[in-house]
Structure formats: C-alpha cells, structure tokens
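Tutorial handout. Part one gives the primary structure; part two gives the three-dimensional structure as tokens.
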Amino acid sequence: MAWLRSFLPRSAGPRVICFPHAGGTAAAFRPLALTLAPHVEVLAVQYPGRQDRYDDPMISDMTTLVEAIGKAVTPELTTNTVFLGHSLGATVAYETARRLLPRYPSPLAGLIVSARKAPHACTPLGLSFEAEEVRAIVDRLGGQGAELLRDPELWTLALPVLRNDFLLADRYRHTPGPPLACPITAITAADDTAFTEADATAWATHTLGSFTTRVLPGGHFYFEQRPEDLAAIIADVLGALPTGRTA
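Part two.
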C-alpha cells in the first residue's frame, strides 16, 4: 500500500509533505491542503494500521518506519519541498530528512516541526501505556481526537493505534550525527503546556541552515481550528526561496 495521500489533483508546484501525530492519519491535513490550494500541493504520510491501511501491520520501531517513508518520499522531491511534522510526526519528519541524500545541499527547502521536543531532548515517559494512561494523554492534549474518543466504539478501534504510536515515541533515542542542511522552523502554540517556546529553541542545534521559532494561538492541536495560520508559515518558508530554485 502506498505511503502518501493527496487530497486534490496532483501538481508540479511547491510541495509540503506532512507527517501526522501519534494516533493520527493523513486526513488530519486535508483542511491544510484545501487552504494552500492551488498554490502549494499537500501530500500526507499514512502510517500503517489505520484507515485505508488498517490491515497493514503497525510499526513501533523508528528506524524501520523512517526507512520505508524515505523510500516513498524521495521520488516526490522534484520541486521545492518542505517537510511538516506535528507532535510525534515532527520526530518522524526529522529522521526521514536525515536519510535523504545528498546531505548537502539539502533536497529539502525546509523542515517545519510542530509541538514536539527536539530529538536530543526526547526522553521516555516511564509509562506502560495501558488503556487509562493512553486516555489520560489524549485527554490532556485535547483536540478533535479527544472528543471523538468519548465514543466507546471509536475508542476500541483507536486504542491499539495510539498505544503503538506512544510506544514508538517512548522508545525513540536520538543518535548523534551531522545536522541537517535545510532551514528549520519550530512552531509552538501559546496554550500548549506540553511544548513551550523554550522547547522549540532547542531544535536550533539540528541544522546548519537558518532557524526560526513561531508562536501561534491555540492549544496542542492549534491547526484544527485555524489551518490558515499554519498555511501562512508554510507559504513563508517556500516564499523565502530564490525564484526558480528546485530540489
């Protein structure tokens, strides 16, 4: 099954490839795709074990996951391309970017990381991720997912996916290596207690390129209510490129 989903007819224009949060799906980025159309194309990674990949085995090892995604996204780097990762997706996007060759110059126009601590600052939570612990994390982060999971049937379906993804995040250990060559933009939301502006600045050590932090209104899932705010940042990153530059 293919790893990438598109929401509108494909184009050859600038492109953003999106990496979902824990328990998330490619569909989380459909409003962003509609907001950026027709100027920027949005592709979203669909992790196995959910929606149309329900029958595909889930992956709880970061190296296995990003190597598969890297093979899938490499053919898409034919135009100005930005990676965008939200929460766990920021780590997945970063590790995928590390595997792109050549390392310099970077085939990416930029990496946008949202609501996730820098790789070297990720530490295990020390939880077993049993059902009530998973529910507590989801409730604390809020967003549409927390509301949907109040339905018992949806909760039963979502629990294995959430547990897998939380374990994936908890087991992740950053391996030191050369920093990325592309610019990094780190986004935090003003009301997100899980990821502060101070946390965002720690991403600066992971690039040789420029580094920027942005603070947007809202909580951990700020872009659900205002995708236009995130779209504006993506447009800024792509718009800062020299005219005619391609990957």
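Part three, for discussion. Residues 152-171 form the longest helix (20 residues). The chain has eight helices and seven strands.
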